[in-house]
UniProtKB/TrEMBL annotation:
This is Methylthioribose-1-phosphate isomerase. It comes from Lichenifustis flavocetrariae. One of its GO terms (biological process) is L-methionine salvage from methylthioadenosine. It comes from the Bacteria. One of its GO terms (molecular function) is S-methyl-5-thioribose-1-phosphate isomerase activity.
Amino acid sequence: MKIGDSAFRTIWCDGDSRVVNVIDQTVLPHRFAIKTLHSATDAALAIRDMTVRGAPLIGAAGAYGLALAMNQDPSDAHLQSAFDQLLVARPTAVNLRWALERMRGHLGPIAPDRRRNAAYAEAAAIADEDVAVCSALGQHGAELIAAAWRRTGRSQPVNVLTHCNAGWLATVDWGTALAPVYKAHRAGVPVHVWVDETRPRNQGASLTAYELGSEGVPHTVVVDNVGGHLMQHGMVDLCIVGTDRTTRTGDVCNKVGTYLKALAAHDNGVPFYVALPASTIDWRMRDGVKEIPIEEREATEVTHMSGETAEGDIATIRVTPKNSPALNYGFDVTPARLVTGLITERGVCAASEAGLLSLFPGEERAA
Ligand SMILES: CSC[C@@H](O)[C@@H](O)C(=O)COP(=O)(O)O
């Protein structure tokens, strides 16, 4: 997508260069900086400290992390140790395991002296596929936005509420929840986005607002707790969010606070959609609340906030009393019964096992 006049992906290699470039998301929207990753350790750190974040991008970064590992030492032992190191970088987004298993499955049968090129090619294939998949699911989701517009008699912009950042910065390009917005906007459907700020790390206020602004999509940043009020007053036509892991039964794990939005949507008859590539489906899990590992991050993300000062410096300030403890669960699970539909690259389906299997037949065995 565009930043100024230039088109960017979130992760890429320059030509035959063996290093991997990423957009540093920890300094957006105040700075635009590119970080270069030289090793699997760099990639693991970038995932852990959220230089790169968002489930599909975490997967692509894991894949490139294994390519960097193969560049250093293509042995079986190093393939496995880099796999283990990357797998634990963040626990909730299943795309990481999906991408690492795909890379290991591809590289394992290849002789070590031929693994280097094969690893970069496979990581690039994962990245390219993510772009195509997000574009396709965006097209399906845009039809839902266009239908909402038709229901208003084409008289009003469609108001979409989203939580966290599930735009192109969270993927390789296009995004998941925001891909339908971009496709609808480009097709001339007037759309306005309510952007939840998404405490504690403010991915909505900093990243979603940044990308929507860069693409010229009308949007308004709102505090996390206002969604219920907006819905009660008919100010939201549909919610679209992303997900870090969706069970085969359609339970959806996403950034903490998503569940409360789904409850408010349910109570107010507002459709609640979740956009995801198939790589985010965990076919091995059935009960999202009981089985999905929920990341717990540092309490300092709650006790402190960062932003730009009037002088243009980036500063961090404490917002809680010095001795108050804080708890920081990164994600929550929205049960399938609160989800109107899942927007995938193969179309929109019910949030249920039958719904998912209707689009992705052949996954029965993974139960
Ligand atoms: C297309 S991304 C879907 C999810 O990864 C996104 O909604 C989200 O929760 C991101 O969380 P983050 O902690 O910023 O990685």
